Amino acid sequence: MKLTLWQRMDIVARQMTPALLTLLAVMVTMLPLRLPDFGPVAPWLALISVYYWSVHRPDLLPAAAVFAIGLFSELAAGTPLGVTTLVLLLMHTAAVSQRRFFISRSFMVVWCGFATMALAASLLVWFMNMALGGVVMSPRPLVFQFMTTVAAYPLFAWCFAQVQRLIQR
Hints:
By secondary structure, this protein is mainly alpha-helical. Helices cover about 75% and strands about 0% of the residues.
């Protein structure tokens, strides 16, 4: 059976949805919200998205897409090249490698898994930025960003679950 152009476009759009949502998360994180001192402690939405899709639909968010999103994030934010990309790729790899464990567990276990991986990712970014900058940085923003990221995970996981139901139809 030959698919029509609209059917093929629908399939492509469904397959691109996780990558586009992750890219959107990067852009939303960069929005100037005019809240004093919120930037360094804002939730790391791209990390949430990469983790969620890597656990639930790794076929729709391949490592190449994660690499491109990380690179876009660094270029758009003006941060050192390679740090965010490496951390997002490590998150993707870790989540995909533990997918069998997480997929059959309760939400709390998946959330705790995210918290553990987010802590490791935050620490890695902190150490890499200190090494690249040659300065000792305060861990306070790292702690608050980690907490806001972990606190934001349930809301975004619920939203992504709704999207996942829509794209599976």
